[in-house]
């Protein structure tokens, strides 16, 4: 099936996922259009990470995931990633013993054209100038913030249609988190579609066009960021 | 010969056999890193390398170099078949690693018996690569086959290091070893990498068998002792560290040759297993520390 340029970049319908016999995600819908940044909020165990992992096919799941109208296989993460749905997992998943240069190169694994790789590298260094100075360094020896830059930089090397981020601020100092989120804002403004799972709700709300609230594996509301702020109970819950 | 000459002479032959153990050990590590499986069919690859070369050379009069090349390619293909036929179906069913290890042991036995049926049970040898008189260093004789073994092994280890360091495929294989899920997320075809790891290990085993057969012999049942030696080499070096395994192989070869000299050939295996026990008791992570 040929891609339909008018269909959403990511459209999830009725996605259900389980770990063994435990259902972690129940019939969830999610739509991301061009240039949108969608935030997923919810308490621990709400199924936020599971949603991202199920989209990639990393956990057993049923339902439908389409990108530009094309149905993506449900148990083939390589196919989903190749279709441009790129996940920066919780804990970053960098290749610690390898250098920054090797990590970035592997992000563009499917690209064999050297000039194209160079072009993507240049774009990544524009966002993260620090990485260009640390190319030979072992990624695992960097600070948490720098490792997150490697992880996001590596994902960008794949030239994603939709970038999925699972708690990029986890374990980072507030100043570093602000830096990372500022980068995400710039990326989003340049047209990249993003799905952001974030515990630190206020940060996510500043960037998002839409917020999905998850609880116990179910979508309880899809609202605008302003509604979250104005809704007393939610505000107390997320800003406490 | 003085005692010192004897020791030197033993060390030279120990170095040669040690290189072979090292190559087999690397084979263990490459598969272990890609899959978490200890592949006990590794010895079958060594046996097949020597055996296929022998059959092509003696029965079909194929030129030596071509026979060796065909043997390496054929054994690499056997490695891929083993992965597709034995390992992958278990992998897809999420079988415990323990079950997959047992399955490779079963595969070892099957390959051994099929070879027995197709060839016979007689020991086979290969001619030395160069039939020149040994080089004399004082009273220590160094035969050319030992030099081929050492030079060939070093060349392979060097080529392997370059492959893992420089090529995109080599880097992708390392990435799979470090974090399989993260590799999937970069669209690296992890299952292809697993097949490639089996091909690479099998090819290495075949080369080890071809290098060694002229100085020893091969027969349908030589696989298991070689697998054990290679396994010990990998343990000494720190399981999962290819270049540690090579150093481990050298150490094992040297210890064994000295044991043969001082304790007699009957205690060769006892010496090797003592080294294994020593490491398991004192330093289970090996010289360089286990990779995972």
Overall body shape of chain A: globular
Instruction: State the strand order across the main sheet of chain A.
Output: 6-7-8-3-9-10
The separation of the N and C termini of chain A measures 47 Å
Order of helices and strands of chain A: EEEHEEHEHHHHEHEHEEHH
Separation of the first and last Cα atoms of chain B: 47 Å
Structural class per helix/strand content of chain B?
mainly alpha
Biggest sheet details of chain A? 6 strands, mixed
Number of helices of chain A: 10
Per the CATH scheme, the topology name of the domain at 1-84 and 161-168 and 197-240 in chain A is Rossmann fold
Shape of chain B: globular
Cα Rg of chain B: 19 Å
Q: Tell me, rounded to a whole number, the average pLDDT of chain B.
A: 91
Family (chain B): Belongs to the binding-protein-dependent transport system permease family. LivHM subfamily.
GO molecular function (chain B): transmembrane transporter activity
Keywords (chain B): Amino-acid transport, Cell membrane, Membrane, Transmembrane, Transmembrane helix, Transport
InterPro entries (chain B): ABC_transp_permease, BCAA_transport_permease
Brief overview:
With 240 residues, chain A is an alpha/beta fold. Chain A has helices at residues 48-56, 77-82, 100-107, 114-127, 129-133, 144-157, 174-189, 201-207, 225-230, 232-239, and strands at 10-19, 22-32, 37-41, 61-67, 70-71, 85-88, 162-166, 193-197, 210-215, 218-223.
Topology summary:
The complex is a heterodimer of chains A (about 240) and B (about 290).
Chain A: E1 10-19, E2 22-32, E3 37-41, H1 48-56, E4 61-67, E5 70-71, H2 77-82, E6 85-88, H3 100-107, H4 114-127, H5 129-133, H6 144-157, E7 162-166, H7 174-189, E8 193-197, H8 201-207, E9 210-215, E10 218-223, H9 225-230, H10 232-239
Helix pairs in contact in A: 3-6, 4-6
Chain B: H1 3-35, H2 42-59, H3 64-92, H4 97-118, E1 135-137, E2 140-142, H5 144-166, H6 168-178, H7 180-185, H8 190-212, H9 223-237, H10 242-263, H11 268-282
Antiparallel strand pairs in B: 1-2
Organism (chain B): Prosthecodimorpha hirschii
GO biological process, one term (chain B): amino acid transport
Pfam family, one (chain B): BPD_transp_2
């Amino acid at each position: 099936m040929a891609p339909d340029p008018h269909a959403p970049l990511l459209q999830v319908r009725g996605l259900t996922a389980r770990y063994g016999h435990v259902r972690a995600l129940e019939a969830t819908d999610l739509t991301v259009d061009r240039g949108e940044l969608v935030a997923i909020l919810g308490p621990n165990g709400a199924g936020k990470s599971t949603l991202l992992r199920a989209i990639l096919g990393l956990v057993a799941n049923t339902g439908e995931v389409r990108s530009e109208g094309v149905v993506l296989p449900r148990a083939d993460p390589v196919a989903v990633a190749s279709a441009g749905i790129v996940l920066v997992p919780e804990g970053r998943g960098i290749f610690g013993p390898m250098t920054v240069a090797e990590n970035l190169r592997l992000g563009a694994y499917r690209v064999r054209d050297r000039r194209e790789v160079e072009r993507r590298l240049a774009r990544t260094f524009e966002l993260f100038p620090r990485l260009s100075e640390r190319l030979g360094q072992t990624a695992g020896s960097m600070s948490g913030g720098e490792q997150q830059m490697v992880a996001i930089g590596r994902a960008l090397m794949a030239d994603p249609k939709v970038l999925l981020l699972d708690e990029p601020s986890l374990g980072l100092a507030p100043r570093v988190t602000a830096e990372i989120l500022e980068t995400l804002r710039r990326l989003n403004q340049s047209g990249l579609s993003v799905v952001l799972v974030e515990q630190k709700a206020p940060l996510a709300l500043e960037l998002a066009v839409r917020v999905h609230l998850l609880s116990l594996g179910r979508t309880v509301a899809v609202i605008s960021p302003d509604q979250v702020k104005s809704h007393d109970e939610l505000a107390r819950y997320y800003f406490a | 010969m003085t005692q010192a000459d004897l020791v030197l002479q033993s060390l030279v032959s120990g170095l040669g056999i040690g290189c072979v153990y090292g190559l087999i050990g690397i084979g263990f590590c490459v598969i272990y890193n890609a899959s978490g499986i200890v592949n006990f069919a590794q010895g079958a690859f060594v046996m097949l390398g020597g055996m296929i070369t022998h059959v092509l050379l003696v029965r079909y009069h194929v030129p030596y170099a071509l026979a060796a090349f065909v043997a390496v390619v054929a054994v690499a293909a056997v490695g891929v078949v083993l992965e597709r036929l034995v390992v992958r179906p278990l992998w897809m069913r999420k079988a415990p690693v323990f079950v997959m290890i047992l399955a490779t042991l079963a595969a070892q036995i099957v390959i051994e018996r099929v070879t027995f049926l197709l060839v016979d049970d007689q020991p086979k040898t290969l001619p030395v690569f160069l039939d020149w008189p040994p080089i004399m260093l004082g009273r220590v004789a160094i035969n050319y086959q030992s030099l081929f073994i050492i030079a060939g092994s070093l060349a392979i280890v060097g080529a392997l290091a370059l492959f893992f360091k420089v090529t995109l495929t080599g880097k992708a294989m390392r990435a799979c070893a470090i974090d399989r899920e993260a590799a999937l997320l970069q669209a690296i075809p992890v299952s292809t990498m697993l097949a490639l790891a089996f091909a690479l290990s099998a090819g290495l085993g075949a080369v080890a068998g071809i290098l060694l057969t002229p100085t020893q012999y091969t027969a349908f049942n030589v696989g298991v002792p070689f697998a054990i030696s290679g396994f010990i080499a990998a343990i000494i070096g720190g399981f999962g560290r290819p270049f540690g395994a090579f150093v481990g192989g050298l150490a094992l070869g040297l210890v064994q040759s000295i044991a043969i000299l001082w304790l007699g050939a009957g205690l060769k295996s006892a010496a090797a297993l003592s080294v294994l026990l020593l490491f398991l008791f004192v330093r289970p992570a090996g010289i360089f520390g286990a990779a995972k």
